[in-house]
Design a protein that fits this description.
mainly alpha; 8 helices; 70% helix; globular
C-alpha cells in the first residue's frame, strides 16, 4: 500500500488530542478487558486491520481467550459473553453503525440496566475513541506492526 500522512509526526497536537481521550478512559475505571472487546468489535465492523491486530493482542495479554476473540463477531450466537458484555457489544455496534438506524432505545436501555452511569459514560466515550482511531488508521493506511 502507498504510504500516507503520519499525523503524529506532521501535527503532534492533533494526535495528542486523541491521546487525551485515551487518558480519560484509562482513569475512568472502565474494565480494561471490556475496553479491548469494544475496540476489537468496532474495529471488526470498520474493517481496521491495524486496530484489530493491536487490540486482539492487547486483549490476549490481559488474559482474553482466543475462542472469545475468534467468536466476537458472532457474540449473539454464543453463550461466551456475560449479559453486561452483551449489552456493551450491542451498544458498540449500534454506535459504530449509527447510520443504520441510530442507537435504538432497547439497546441503550439494556446498556443502562447493566452499567452504572459512570460506566455508561466511559463506554460511550470508548466507542467514540475507537471509531476515531479506526478512521485515522484506515485513512492514513497505518501499516501493521
Amino acid at each position: 500500500m502507498e504510504t500516507r500522512i503520519n499525523i503524529s509526526k506532521v501535527d503532534p497536537k492533533a494526535y495528542a488530542a486523541m491521546i487525551g481521550l485515551e487518558k480519560y478512559l484509562a482513569q475512568s475505571g472502565l474494565d480494561k478487558m471490556l475496553y479491548e472487546l469494544i475496540k476489537t468489535r468496532a474495529s471488526q465492523i470498520n474493517g481496521c486491520a491495524f486496530c484489530i491486530n493491536m487490540h486482539t493482542r492487547d486483549a490476549m495479554k490481559l488474559g482474553e481467550t482466543s475462542q472469545r476473540l475468534f467468536l466476537l463477531d458472532a457474540w449473539r450466537e454464543t453463550d461466551l459473553f456475560t449479559e453486561k458484555e452483551r449489552a456493551v457489544l450491542a451498544l458498540t455496534e449500534a454506535m459504530t453503525l449509527i447510520t443504520e438506524g441510530h442507537v435504538p432505545d432497547p439497546v441503550y436501555k439494556n446498556a443502562e440496566e447493566h452499567l452504572t452511569p459512570n460506566e455508561l459514560a466511559a463506554v460511550i466515550m470508548a466507542v467514540v475513541a475507537i471509531n476515531g482511531w479506526n478512521r485515522i488508521a484506515i485513512t492514513t493506511r497505518t501499516p501493521l506492526d
